[in-house]
Predict the structure.
Amino acid sequence: MSFFDKIFGGKENTPERKSFWKKIESEEDLAKAIETSYHHKVAIFKHSTRCFISKTVLKNFEKEIDNLDQKLDLYYLDLLEYRSISNKISQDLGIRHESPQLIVIEDGKIINSASHEDISVSQIT
């Protein structure tokens, strides 16, 4: 592994996501996330696996979320793999696409969102 891969994360150094993430890999997964929001808040983290900023924000968010006591389902969307689903989120929920982006949904509607360095657990609570 090269020096730059160690710093910026090469393809072969892709860490496993934390166990609390539920992946969104289909329109059905997205529909399930939105349906769940009628029972309690959900958050969708839209992540670009090739972006250093997105990797850093995700890592920091995961550290923060470990200390959250609130009932919440956390969804993870790989933007590069599932761009069409990201587009559907933008279209169906009326939000501009950003990356990285955290979208908090309750009762089927966006109640908060943040992007880049503004992403934190405080967006959820």
Summary: The mean pLDDT is 88. The longest helix spans residues 52-65. Strands lie at 21-23, 42-47, 73-78, 101-106, 109-115.
